[in-house]
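Hi R.,

As promised on Friday, here is the backbone we talked about, encoded as structure tokens. Could you run it through your design pipeline when you get a chance and send me back a sequence?
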């Protein structure tokens, strides 16, 4: 009997979500800003150590809000990796800005901090580090170079709830940070996100932009007696139904991280012999960074080996996927962005990376099956080369 295929991802539910959604319905407040939204934002502000957390309908929405607050306009430049999700760039392009794509480090696959300075021009308004797989970027260097050139730092911490860099939560280090609660992320509500504001001076504008350009937040606190259109903004907040689902997940987030880390470590140990024999490379996590098992990936020899591995795993009932077609080589990236340098590491990582299944509820046997399948496919490939 062939066992059930192992999916790449299975959106997690603790089992308590439905009762929370029921409670939201019984509260008679389903639009944004109700009791569940308040619990989520208070939790996030405490956990992240930031001044203000504003829930959004997606990580993409949070990035758009950050781009709006950063006041980037036509012709302004924003430095970011090309090895990231489209929304990192799209959010700024919507404001007329030009993404300037810089290469990544070959160890963490994060923005190469040594290349930032050379990409800076008088039009550079912001640097957007993306913490791939919840492993932090070289934040001291990023903050230093941005600070010296008067550029903002906006962290795309979509992968990174509960991950830290030298003890500090990712997403709380730059001027602004965002997290995603999409169903593929560790903690989710189907679609969701949050904008994190560190500097109290930004809070007023952030609240206005988040509330369709009105001062409704101040009105609700009784600080003004009516609310009015006061600046640019849009509708970014999620409904209480989503906030209720998210609240349950935030409360369970420590356990979720722990369980994912267990699976991550199993992969890491079991794949060590294959790395020692030079048939794949495992992820690198610098000692001063804590992650939370968001992604387990391996890097193989070439694009052909990558495709063969994904195909071979599929035939063995294991759904594995690649990650990120580089933005600088995508049609919109070429139209709206600019590559700085040759982005060799980006292209190579994109060609050679395979993400393995990782979700809460995977058993030890599941992990063993994946490891055996990886090992089988790579052995076969090595044998066919030897002939
Ligand atoms: C998931 C993700 C986002 C945001 O995605 P949403 O689906 O809009 O929540 C942004 N950047 C990166 C790097 C991501 O992985």
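Update: got your reply. Pasting your designed sequence below so it's all in one thread:
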């Amino acid at each position: 009997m062939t066992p059930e295929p192992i999916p790449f991802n299975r959106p997690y539910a603790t089992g308590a979500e439905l009762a929370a959604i029921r409670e939201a319905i019984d509260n008679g407040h389903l639009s944004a800003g109700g009791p569940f939204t308040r619990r989520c934002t208070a939790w996030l502000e405490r956990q992240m150590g930031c001044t203000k957390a504003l829930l959004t309908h997606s990580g993409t929405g949070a990035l758009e809000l950050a781009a709006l607050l950063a006041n980037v306009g036509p012709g302004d430049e924003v430095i970011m990796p090309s090895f990231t999700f489209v929304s990192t760039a799209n959010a700024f392009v919507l404001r007329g800005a030009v993404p300037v794509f810089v290469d990544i480090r070959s160890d963490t696959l994060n923005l190469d901090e040594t290349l930032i300075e050379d990409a800076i021009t008088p039009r550079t308004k912001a640097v957007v580090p993306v913490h791939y797989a919840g492993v932090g970027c070289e934040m001291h260097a990023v903050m230093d170079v941005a600070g010296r050139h008067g550029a903002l730092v906006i962290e795309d911490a979509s992968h990174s709830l509960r991950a830290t860099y030298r003890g500090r939560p990712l997403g709380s280090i730059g001027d602004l940070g965002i997290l995603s609660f999409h169903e593929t992320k560790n903690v989710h509500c189907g679609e969701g996100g949050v904008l994190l504001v560190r500097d109290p001076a930004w809070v007023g504008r952030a609240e206005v932009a988040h509330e369709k350009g009105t001062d409704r937040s101040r009105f609700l606190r009784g600080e003004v007696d009516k609310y009015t259109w006061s600046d640019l903004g849009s509708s970014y907040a999620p409904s209480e139904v989503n906030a209720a689902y998210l609240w349950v997940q935030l409360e369970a987030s420590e356990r979720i991280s722990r369980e994912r880390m267990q699976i991550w470590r199993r992969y890491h140990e079991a794949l060590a012999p294959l790395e020692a024999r030079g048939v794949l490379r495992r992820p690198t996590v610098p000692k001063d960074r804590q992650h939370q098992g968001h992604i387990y990936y391996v890097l193989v020899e070439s694009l052909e080996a990558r495709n063969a591995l994904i195909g071979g795993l599929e035939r063995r009932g294991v759904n594995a996927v690649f990650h990120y077609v580089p933005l600088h080589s995508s049609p919109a990236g070429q139209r709206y962005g600019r590559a700085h340098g040759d982005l060799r590491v980006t292209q190579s990582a994109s060609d050679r990376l395979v993400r393995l299944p990782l979700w809460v509820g995977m058993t030890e046997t599941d992990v063993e099956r994946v490891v055996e399948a990886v090992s089988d496919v790579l052995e076969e490939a090595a044998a066919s080369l030897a002939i």
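One thing I noticed while checking it: The first helix runs from residue 17 to 27.

Thanks again,
M.
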